[in-house]
Design a protein that fits this description.
Layout: H1 2-13, H2 15-20, H3 24-44, H4 47-75, H5 84-93, H6 105-128, H7 132-156, H8 160-164, H9 169-194, H10 205-253, H11 258-278, H12 295-307, H13 317-325, H14 340-348, H15 350-373, H16 379-397, H17 404-420, H18 424-429
Helix pairs in contact: 1-3, 1-6, 1-7, 3-6, 4-6, 4-15, 6-17, 7-9, 7-10, 7-17, 9-10, 9-16, 9-17, 10-15, 10-16, 14-15, 15-16, 16-17
């Protein structure tokens, strides 16, 4: 499995060049590479580890299949559920078109490939991370990749962007992709820096201190870079992730009972939710109610969501419909919608989107409980919980972000968290 571990670490580092070529060829390469990694891990894994993997990763795999199945349904020729655009196209062409839920089959195929790539990396990383030494190697690769992404992100931020003459649409979209990787790096590096006993692999005490300081510096650098580029939206997401990490750390240090920890987390969540609702934009959809953006952008996104069918319009909906709702932005201005949540609702429909939000919250709770109850290797599960919380809030506070650059990194974080959420000895004893 060490060869597979090295392959995945290289693949994680490849998120950087993928961020520069976020297009169809890049999606094909990522899909092929992640499939190869999955095949290699399934071939190399030992029978005992395979049984453990099935038990810890099975529910997550089942949950990940739901949006993929929905994307497939959206591409099927279903006249009774078809998007209204197909009817207008048929009338214009004077032809009978069966139509489908999605208005762009090619974009939906791309979204399906990204989901499959995420699932492949998640399973591969979970198989690798059953061994804590391999999990440590994967997380260090993620932290290093996040630092590289943060450095690149700084070069795209104002005023450096203007000084370098990089103020064009393609460069802005590239920077948004690196923002996802940078956001992931903040809570992951922080929690690994706080984990005193999770690095002891033949290192001396001085080496461990240097490693933890380096991880803390990485977390700080990623946070500064993300906030410098993403402003208020990125800061809100980062603060939430850091707060969850510190809460888990404090609960472990103080040896709080699991129910006391759960009650404290619920109280903090309710206070944060009440504060957010009190400060949201009035009279607009919840998906765009918390974004700090121009009023015209918020209102045009609200109009787009109001006119969308309940089942969504498939991947690429916002790009196809932008000319109708976003004329005031100009032909080459990004973003076309105010938040990533709005883009996901346009793609999946509101029911599926909020279902995915609920599943993500359950995942955060499961990873948090695992980190609270885990022994030495608690940081992997805590990192997964904090990363999911950070990205969940970023969906509501940041513009539509390219998914491909963060697919490999996010899948690796979730996979390591799944493998280390419960110890093998405890699962076998239970």
């Amino acid at each position: 499995m060490w060869n597979v571990t090295a392959f995945i670490c290289i693949l994680i580092g490849a998120s950087i060049p993928v961020g520069f070529i976020d297009a169809s060829p890049a999606m094909g390469l990522v899909g092929a590479a992640t499939s190869l990694g999955l095949l290699a891990s399934v071939t190399a894994i030992r029978p005992g580890e395979l049984s453990f993997l099935n038990r810890v990763a099975g529910p997550a795999v089942a949950a990940a299949l739901v949006p993929m199945l929905w994307i497939i349904v959206q591409m099927l020729p279903l006249p009774f559920w078809a998007h209204p655009v197909w009817k207008f196209a048929g009338e214009t062409l004077d032809a009978s078109l069966s139509g489908s839920i999605t208005i762009d089959t090619g974009a939906s195929l791309g979204a399906l490939l990204r989901c499959l790539s995420l699932l492949s990396v998640m399973i591969t990383a979970a198989a690798i991370a059953i061994d804590a030494r391999r999990a440590d190697m994967v997380t260090r690769s993620i932290a290093a990749t996040a630092v590289a992404a943060a450095l690149i992100l700084l070069l795209y931020s104002d005023p450096i962007k203007a000084w370098l003459g990089a103020a064009d649409v393609a460069r802005d979209e590239t920077a948004n992709g690196f923002l996802v990787v940078t956001l992931i790096g903040v809570p992951l590096s922080l929690v690994r820096a706080l984990d005193v006993g999770g690095h002891a692999d033949g290192r001396t005490a001085a080496q461990l201190v240097r490693l933890r300081r380096l991880l803390a510096a990485s977390a700080l650098f990623c946070a500064v870079s993300a906030c410098w580029y993403g402003r208020r939206g990125a800061a809100i997401a980062i603060v939430a992730g850091i707060a969850l990490v510190l809460m888990i750390f404090a609960a472990r240090k103080l040896h709080l009972h699991r129910w006391s920890s759960a009650a404290a987390a619920a109280a903090i969540a309710l206070i944060a939710l009440a504060t957010a609702i009190a400060n949201r934009h009035p009279d607009v959809a919840l998906a765009i109610a918390f974004v700090h953006a121009p009023t015209d952008l918020v209102q045009s996104t609200h109009n787009l969501l109001a006119d969308l069918p309940a089942l969504g319009g498939g991947a690429g909906s916002t790009a196809k419909l932008a000319s109708t709702y976003m004329d005031w932005q100009g032909a080459t201005t990004r973003p076309v919608v105010a938040t990533s949540a709005a883009g996901l609702i346009a793609q999946f429909g509101s029911a599926m989107f909020w279902t995915l939000v609920a599943v993500t919250i359950m995942g955060i709770a499961a990873f948090t409980a695992g980190a609270r109850n885990r022994g030495r290797d608690w940081s992997y599960s805590a990192a997964a919980a904090a990363v999911l919380l950070t990205l969940l809030l970023a969906v509501f506070t940041l513009p539509e972000l390219p998914a491909l650059p963060g697919v490999i990194v996010l899948g690796a974080v979730i996979g390591t968290g799944l493998a280390q959420r419960i110890s093998r000895s405890r699962l076998q004893a239970g």
